[in-house]
Amino acid sequence: MGKSFLIDVDKCSGCSLCIVACKDEHVGNSYSPWTAPQPDTGHFWIDVVRVERGKTPRVRMSYLPVLCQHCENAPCIKVCLEGAIKRRDDGLVWIDPATCNGCKLCQEACPYDVIHLNDDLGIAQKCTGCAHRVDEGLLPRCAEVCPHDAIVFADEADSIFKQEGQAKPLEIYHPEYQTKSRVHWKGLPKPWIAGIVIDAAADEVISGAAITSLDLFDDRAVTVRSDEFGDFWIRNLDKDRKYVVEIKEGGYEDFRAVVTTDGDQDLGAVRLKKTE
Asked: Architecture of 193-272 per CATH?
């Protein structure tokens, strides 16, 4: 039975405990045949990518724990002339330190930039999924140590990987790479439309206003309400789409605009005029 990771971005706080645990597990430790010791500097077999989104004052941070995606269609395996990069029966991809000659081709081929060169040993290294621990029935250290269960490791048959009935379907990090990644994701950052609704005459925020986005490609509509500070976010929109945004509040003129989601879009202060 294959193994897979599930990373829930919405649960990740960016605490970096996964990074520390990976270092603690691998720096100075050899786990034959899966890997030689990780150097204490220069390598991050798991790293937390920090994505700042929006602009002041409507800013949010997303944290992405990025490790080897243990791809079924792995470019690193295809490019290795020595046959040093292999896939276990459970799906974990590993680099044989006894065979690798440090040619760097795998490092250049990996679209996720998760392969590192150990200059002292002259070999390429990366996350093994803690294969040595998995063989003992243990979790990879990153999954074991995460206090928020943002990183989960389980059999692919586990119910957490079943998408039926899920409000947020599982995703793949950079699906355009077509690597058939064995790391599944929830909550990968998607564009939002944000702003603040203000009474134009009184210069005061308007809470409870209805903000509707209509996807001009497929007519899907989403409605949210401005909060007590007048702020609103329409989240999880598709990238590079056009939306009509309409703001309505009793006693005020309607606001309409066409917005293209080529990134997070902040409409800033939307000032509504009262109807006569």
From this structure: Sandwich (2.60)
